[in-house]
Design brief:
Layout: E1 23-26, H1 28-35, E2 44-48, E3 54-62, E4 67-74, E5 84-90, H2 96-107, E6 111-116, H3 123-129, H4 136-147, E7 154-155, E8 159-160, H5 161-167, E9 173-177, H6 185-189, E10 197-202, H7 210-218, E11 222-224, H8 233-247
Helix pairs in contact: 2-4, 2-8
């Protein structure tokens, strides 16, 4: 796998500039993006116009070829960060992946890539104990609605470690969390301008093996840590996403 294709439009983008208080019709890709959210009449969604302004709109009519929204509020601050953050996450045990997807969505992550590392549980092992993978997209959707995001994050298919590395090819910044690294994540990104695309690589509960760290470095990842404490993988993922968003304007 070279790169990841994100299916369908994930953001409800209006074709013309909008204003608060008007009704707008959604067709084509805008309607397709709306339908990805399993909408119903009366539901409220966030949309974006060509000027980058975001509005809250209530669905007043919903059909197969057209939907009508009443835009009742222009948001003062955008719900989307100024850069695209992809979270490459080694598959954790139990329900931790669902927690990571939920919080990553709330923090503004665009794409979540679950993968198998040498020390992580496999998807087959996890599903045999507690089938949950089929719900990952629903978890992202529910979190998107809760936090009023304009963009619906994509949870990519489960893949191998090497495929996760390839998914980040061409990204301006690539960061790997590793408890054996003395340099902190905060120092690695301090005083650097926000890139357009960032990949964050987070390992499993058992940690990385040295071969994986070597491969990540060879793929252009900057290896960094989160201090002297050993964090659970879900804690590390959430904390690192929050640090990146804070430093590069995603929580402004």
């Amino acid at each position: 796998m070279r790169g990841i294709e994100i299916p369908g439009p994930r953001e409800i983008a209006l074709e013309t500039p909008a204003k608060e208080g008007e009704d707008v019709e959604l067709r084509g890709e805008a309607l397709e993006a709306l339908l990805l959210r399993d909408p119903h009449r009366g539901e409220i969604v966030t949309v974006k116009d060509p000027k980058g302004r975001e509005f809250r709109g209530r669905i007043v009519a919903l059909g197969d070829t057209v939907a009508t929204l009443h835009l009742f509020e222009e948001l003062k601050k955008p719900t989307e960060p100024p850069f695209d953050l992809w979270l490459l996450q080694a598959l954790p045990d139990k329900e931790r992946m669902e927690l990571i997807i939920q919080k990553a969505t709330e923090l503004g992550v665009k794409v979540i890539v679950p993968f198998k590392s040498s020390r992580s549980i496999s998807l087959e092992e996890r599903e045999a104990r507690q089938p949950k993978a089929h719900r990952w997209g629903h978890v992202a959707l529910k979190a998107t609605k809760q936090c009023r995001r304009a963009y619906l994050p994509y949870v990519a298919p489960y893949c191998r470690f090497e495929e996760a590395l390839k998914a980040a090819e061409g990204f301006e910044r690539k960061l790997m969390l590793y408890e054996g690294e003395g340099r902190s994540l905060a120092s690695a990104i301090k005083d650097t301008p926000p890139p357009s695309r960032v990949a964050l690589l987070v390992g499993p509960e058992g940690g990385w093996d040295q071969g994986e760290v070597k491969k990540a470095r060879a793929s252009g990842f900057t290896v960094c840590g989160l201090g002297g404490r050993i964090l659970r993988t879900e804690t590390a993922a959430i904390a690192a996403c929050a640090i990146l968003m804070y430093e590069w304007g995603g929580l402004a």
